[in-house]
Amino acid sequence: MNIFASVRVGLLYAAVLVVLSVAQLFSFESLLPIVTDFSLPGGRPLAYFLAAFIVIAEVFALPYLLQMRLSSAMQLVSMVTGWLVAFLWLGIALWLTISDSTVTNIGLLGDVVAVAPGLISILIGLILGILAGWSSWSIRPLLRTKK
Predict the structure, then answer these.
(1) What digits encode the pLDDT tens for the residues 98-131?
(2) How many Cα atoms occupy the beta-carbon half-sphere of 20 within 13 Å?
(3) 3-state secondary structure (DSSP) of residue 113
(4) Given CB 3.0 to 4.6 Å as the disulfide criterion, which of 29, 86, 100, 122 pairs with 129?
(5) Rg of the chain taking only CA atoms, in angstroms
(6) How far is residue 105 from each of residues 73, 76, 123, 133, measured CA to CA in Å?
(7) Residues with Cβ < 8 Å from 98, sequence gap 6 or more?
């Protein structure tokens, strides 16, 4: 595989995460009630923690995807947060679709653009997972040798 194609996948995932995090931060006050309406088992404290954690994880995934010079531990943390973002959004989409809730917006783009739960949100979560996996496989922080 061409190394430049791998870098482009990482940059594409980084661009997607930037769009998601900016949209969520732009309307963070309205994101908290959206996530609270998910009827998660932990109630309001878990919903508030989840909303903040997702935005923070999206930002923490960027250094790895942009291939910034970091320690191996921080590269690993950044890569794992990229995976967590994809799994969390897929899990939220599945939870809202399976639980047959009345939520009309999953908060993927905050309150800026409403993304309804259902097949589309599940596909978006799967696409995020594919991008996370592909970029992790192609960039491989732990296999780099120091020069």
Answers:
(1) 987 788 899 889 888 888 888 999 999 999 999 9
(2) 28
(3) strand
(4) 86
(5) 16
(6) 35, 32, 15, 26
(7) none
Paired tokens of 25:
């931060």
pLDDT in tens, 17-58: 999 999 999 988 888 888 988 888 888 899 999 999 999 999
The three-state DSSP-derived secondary structure of 7-59 is HHHHHHHHHHHHHHHHHHHHCHHHHHHHHHCCCCCCHHHHHHHHHHHHHHHHH
Residue 79: HSE in the Cβ half-sphere, 13 Å Cα cutoff: 18
CA distance 28 to 136: 29
Q: What is the pLDDT of residue 2?
A: 57
Structure tokens at 27: 């309307």
List of residues 6+ apart from 101 with CB closer than 8 A: 37, 38, 39, 117
For the beta carbon of residue 10, count every other beta carbon within 10 angstroms.
21
CB 96 within 8 A of CB 106: yes
Helices 28-36/43-60 angle, 10° precision: 130
